[in-house]
Design a protein that fits this description.
Radius of gyration: 20 Å
Helix content: 25-40%
Largest sheet: 5 strands, mixed
Strand order of the largest sheet: 5-2-3-6-7
Strand content: 15-25%
Shape: elongated
Amino acid sequence: MWDGGHGTEKEFPIAYCHDDELDENGKLVVPKEVQDAIRTLISWSGDDPKREGLLDTPARVGRAWREYCQGYDDDPAIHLSRTFEEVGGYHELVLLKDIPFHSHCEHHMAPIIGKASIAYMPTDRVVGISKLARVLHGYARRLQVQERLTAEVANCIYNNLQPEGVAVVIEAQHGCMTGRGVRTPGVGMVTSKLLGCFLDDQRSRKEVMSLMGY
């Protein structure tokens, strides 16, 4: 289950940033071409986009996808810029378990729903624990594959905090498998990325995986 990499994978850059326009009610203005594309999809799927219940759907879907993909406007490394050195001599494992997240598969744009456990072995500084979750969400709120998401989170923490080691384990269900295609609900996918001491030292690896519940 663990990955043999050393944090050298290329991180995908942020594609673009948005300058959002709001209407008089404070709602995001969805461009006409986006709404037209959604109407085309509704029609191609077999329904009538002019039906009463679907009249406002293109705008709603557009706003929803801007929210789903907020990660393109986020640089996850920023959340690791503020660290603390006054930790009373603590240099042991820091672990945040079972962080829920929501993402979307880049192949079918179907939901990926799961949880992540993130651990690192600090050297001389630590980061606020909520920042680990923010790093996860920064990458999850993009079109993703689980393997890349796992590596991006681990590499971001490893490169920016420079700890002795990082371990990330993600367990998720994929809508592209549960709701279409093979249609097999209840199946979870587990991916892991280990760096530094968790990769090189069997004892450290066993400890962190055990504490994560694997």
